Amino acid sequence: SKYWLHQANIKMVKLIASKITGKQDVDESIAPLSIKQFGNLASAGSMFAFNLYNDLEIGEKGIICSFGAGYSVAILVGSYIYLEARPGGSSLLSSINKTIRRFFRIK
Fold first, then answer.
1. Which pLDDT tens digit goes with each residue over 13-72?
2. Which of 26, 34, 42, 104 is least surrounded, with the fewest CB atoms within 10 Å of its CB?
3. What is the pTM of this model?
4. Could you tell me if 3 and 46 are in contact, meaning their C-beta atoms sit under 8 angstroms apart?
5. Burial class of 4 by CB neighbour count within 10 A (0 to 12, 13 to 18, 19+)
């Protein structure tokens, strides 16, 4: 699993990652910190981190979590599922495969 979290500050990212995983010290390979290189990216930070550090393998799950002022929260749980196109299969299935592979940057 991997967690691309709101990148407001490093302490917040580490705190949220520790609450999600139940571990005190969470490795940056699990909860990447794009804030170290790019600073506070506001609520776009989680998607920015996802774009930079998206290396999910087939079957793995990840959480993209952003939040803003007040109590608004947005969470996207994604699981990479590869749909295998069969010979003579539909072009729709092939199109879905291409979209999934492009989204998850899989060659």
1. 888 889 888 999 999 999 999 988 898 887 788 888 888 888 888 888 888 887 765 445
2. 42
3. 0.66
4. no
5. buried
Q: Which of 83, 74, 14 is nearest to 47 (CA)?
A: 74
| 72-76 CB contacts, 8 Å cutoff, 24+ apart | 74/43
Cβ-based neighbours of 4, under 8 Å, separated by 6 or more = 31, 32, 46, 47, 49, 50, 53, 54, 62, 63, 64, 65
Count Cβ atoms below 10 Å from residue 40 Cβ, excluding itself.
Answer: 11
Q: How far from 59 is each of 1, 56, 65, 71, CA to CA, in Å?
A: 10, 8, 20, 32
